[in-house]
Design brief:
single chain; alpha/beta; seven-stranded parallel β-sheet; two-stranded antiparallel sheet; 13 helices
Length: 385
């Protein structure tokens, strides 16, 4: 178990929120899924064994999802009691739009997202068709970043499904990007920028693998093309990692720091200081315009006065500001961007909007009070990624 406040190891988020656990294979990006191993490991914990029983199966010699999904509402409600604004990668151990998940559970998530307006919720799905089908029934709050995973040329058809939704921030995760060595992406899909219209953010990453040689390649030629086309379409770019295969080939997978300890993220090629010089620009760790969150309180006031039934589903959520177009209007012919437009490389340190309320500070004056405070802090927990 881990408390809500435990940091995630994912570079573009702060924490993971896993109120749903369990999934099933969907496309080639799932081949080296880390989540099934994490769930299998946690299921050996006597305190979690009953809750996670039957979600993964290793009887065939290979660990696989069973397709069963489990909803834990108390973990979803826990974020309402975290006052300091955080970015939550939501359901990293499942898919919010999984076919075996009831629609009322999905609606419960979005209701909680709206109430927990001090946070940002980052969602990824590989089930874009169901996302598109349910989108008209969803009351989209401004603090939800909705994304789809696109791992190869064939899966580019998920982007139109995302574009058809009313999500305020739309993003694409090109991770793991699975290059075709015979056909570079620029030849397979000329003018990719045309397919990225309306996308606010793109995460790019090579595949990481639990086994030493299990990862598949991501060509640098594809990385350069993705960066250029995303920027040309007005999307901010976050280069997450170059992948396990590159880390092994470059000899950086076992890199040691000045303190004599292994460099974090080196095995997956996720440490920018070890990358080739062309990819070390701070502008390759960008985020969407965070000013959208600053107006969320105004959005809530307008929505409450109008009511959800009167809000048009064809328009962006009331009170949401227009997206920042400065990136789309600028020249993106190279890999560098104006530091005044883009966020710095220290992604984990990016300042969050001030929370609407702050928790009351209690000074512990006795041992019993300190013990009570520790118990209260550990009451609300979620699975750690």
């Amino acid at each position: 178990m881990s408390s809500v406040g435990v940091n995630s190891g994912i570079q573009w988020t702060d924490d993971t929120l896993n109120a749903i656990v369990g999934c099933s294979w969907r496309s080639p990006a799932c081949d080296n899924c880390y989540a099934r191993y994490d769930v299998n490991r946690m299921a050996r914990n006597p305190r979690l064994e009953e809750q996670l029983d039957g979600l993964v199966d290793g009887s065939s010699g290979e660990l696989k999802w069973t397709g069963r999904v489990q909803f834990f509402p108390e973990r979803l409600d826990a974020v309402l009691r975290v006052h300091r604004g955080r970015r939550y990668f939501t359901n990293s151990l499942s898919d919010l739009f999984h076919e075996n998940l009831d629609e009322d559970v999905i609606q419960k998530h979005f209701k909680t997202f709206r109430e927990a307006h001090q946070h940002t919720f980052q969602i990824l799905t590989k089930r874009s068709q169901r996302l598109r089908e349910l989108s008209p029934n969803i009351d989209w709050p401004c603090n939800v970043w909705m994304g789809v995973t696109v791992e190869d040329v064939r899966r580019l058809d998920r982007i139109p499904d995302l574009a058809a939704t009313q999500a305020r921030i739309k993003w694409v995760s090109f991770e793991p990007w699975l290059s075709d060595p015979a056909t570079p992406l620029c030849e397979a899909v000329p003018n990719l920028r045309n397919r990225l219209e309306g996308i606010d953010w793109a995460v790019i990453g090579g595949e990481s693998s639990k086994t030493k040689y299990g990862a598949r390649p991501m060509l640098f030629e594809d990385v350069r093309y993705l960066i250029g086309e995303c920027r040309a379409a007005g999307a901010k770019v976050f280069l997450k990692q170059l992948g396990t295969l590159w880390a092994i080939a470059s000899g950086t997978n076992d890199a040691m720091g000045d303190d004599g300890k292994p460099v974090k993220k080196a095995k997956s090629g996720g440490e920018p200081s070890l990358w080739p010089a062309e990819f070390q620009s701070p502008s390759l760790r960008e985020f969407p315009d965070v000013r959208v969150m600053e107006s969320f309180a105004a959005s809530e006031a307008i929505d409450n006065s109008v009511g959800p039934d009167k809000a048009s589903k064809s328009d962006p959520p009331d009170g949401c500001p227009a997206p920042d177009q400065s990136a789309a209007d600028s020249d993106h012919s190279d890999l560098s961007c104006s530091p005044s437009v883009h966020k710095p490389a220290a992604a984990k340190d990016m300042t969050h909007p001030a929370p609407t309320s702050r928790p009351t500070t209690h000074k512990s004056k006795s041992r019993s009070q300190r013990r009570w405070n520790r118990q209260r802090k550990n009451t609300y927990w979620i699975f750690e990624e």
